[in-house]
Amino acid sequence: MKFSRLIVQVLLVIAVITSIVLSFFIWTNTARYQRGRNIDVTDAESNKNEIPMNQVISPTSVMWHDEDDQHLIYNSNENISLSIQKIMQDWKIGSPKLVTKKDGAYYQKVIQAKNTIQMVYPTAITANVLGYLLNNDSLKDENGKQFNRILINLKDKKDQNIYLANDNNYAVYKAKVRNASASPITKLVKKANINLKIRLDIMKHGVFTSYTNPIKLQSYSYVVNGKKDGEYTTALFDSNTSGLVTTEDNGVYSYNYGESKRLVSDHNTDELTFSDYTDTSVPKNQLAFLQRGYQKVINLQDSISNLRLYDANWKNRDLTFREYVEGFPIFKKSQFGSIEIKFSRQGSTEHFVNTVLEVPVPSNQSPTKLKSTNDIFKGIQKAGFSLNDIEGLEVGYQWETEADNEKVVDLKPTYYIKIDGHWKAYEDWTNQTAEEE
Predict the structure, then answer these.
(1) Which residue windows are transmembrane per the record (predicted)?
(2) I want to staple 37 with a disulfide (CB 3.0 to 4.6 A). Which of 76, 83, 255, 277 is the partner?
């Protein structure tokens, strides 16, 4: 009897110790902490259909100009741009009126105005798209007025307007606002826990965000997930896969359903292309263009909460989407981002990568300190390029698969430069590191 009691006591002690150890790991695991932060990464169990269009098509940068300097701000615990959008849904926004166009000097003053917050889209959208995203009836009929910046003055009570600005043609629109208060937005600005000093420069190819000082950003690691080809064929061929003809050549698999639909899956690069030759109707306006693109995105991927519209080319009828972390785009090895969709009279094409971020994992990587943008420009010039050659410049995250675990990727911040239509890491253009030494 004593021996049995002793065994029970020993087992109880072991159970208590195990519980304490497990609790320690749960509460100190960085993955647990990061999943609670707003880093634009979906929960593996989240429902993609619950991700609204105004989250996928939303501003990715928020800039605050105080009395002295301009800052790129972000809150890891609350997405500032999505919160401001929610606040704006209660505003009565009138029809935008053109203030000026093609005046670079005036445009520079507008985007550098003090006491102003800016929400910046990676690509231009129209005022009626904004009306749809905000559920604002007065904007829904405003087709054709394009912009990629929303500017709100938080101090001047006499200025009862918001401003819509377009980096492409320097157009500025003014829209009267009623039932609005700057106080909730000011509170969001004060909560920002990422604050990087910037300067907006107008260069040959548009407005560039320059970081005036070296910046420090955290690196991340994530488990990635992908689907088998059969899951895509079931979804993309409307579950009618009995008539599929399959061929393979050096790891490239082709699935054809007559002459109407085709899926090509390159197992060497994890890139897929789906062509639907029956989808020959071209969107007649930009709202329909973005709505159809959004619908195709949610049909393609299970995890889309960190996906954002990156580029909308209305002339060519194609859309590009990228994944974002902490408000910065992720650049994969593909040239097109995460998903590229094109509409034409010959059919629609969807080009996408079969790897999406699932959940963060603990990372012992220390923050990366990057050079100021001015030093990056000097490096580009030293490599033989002119500043006029630079078509785009962004700080983004580089996608690197771990050598010993292909299911885990490391996301490391660096500068990305677009030259001759191609985005490449600064290191690839110059053979120099973007990190501060």
Answers:
(1) 6-27
(2) 76
**Distance from the first to the final alpha carbon of the chain:** 70
Look at the chain and report how many structural domains it folds into: 2
List the single range of 102-106, 156-160, 217-221, 428-432 with lowest mean pLDDT: 156-160
3-state secondary structure of 307: strand
Residues recorded for the chain: 437
Q: Which of 149, 180, 196 is the last residue of a domain?
A: 196
On whether residue 224 sits in a domain, the answer given is no
pLDDT value for 157: 81
Q: Residue 38 in 3-state DSSP?
A: coil
What count of other Cβ atoms lies within 10 Å of the Cβ of residue 316?
Answer: 10
- Looking at the predicted structure, is the pLDDT value of residue 111 above 70? yes
pLDDT at 30: 34
Residue 87: inside a domain, yes or no?
A: yes
Report the predicted TM-score, pTM, of the whole model to 2 decimal places. 0.87
Give the end of a domain, one of 171, 196, 221: 196
The DSSP code sequence of 172-213 is EEEEEEES--SHHHHHHHHT-SEEEEEEEEEETTEEEEEESS
Q: How confident is the model at residue 240 (pLDDT cuts 50, 70, 90)?
A: low
**Residue for token digits 């937005």?**
185
Residue 24 binned pLDDT confidence (cut-offs 50, 70, 90): very low
Query: Are 147 and 27 members of one domain?
Result: no
* Residues 106, 56 share a domain: yes
Instruction: With CA atoms as reference, report the closest residue to 264 among 281, 282, 245.
Output: 245
| Residue in 328, 349, 340, 299 with CA at minimum distance from that of residue 396 | 328
Residues 360/39, Cβ–Cβ less than 8 Å: yes
| Domain coverage including residue 18 | 2-36
Q: Tell me whether residue 192 is in a domain.
A: yes
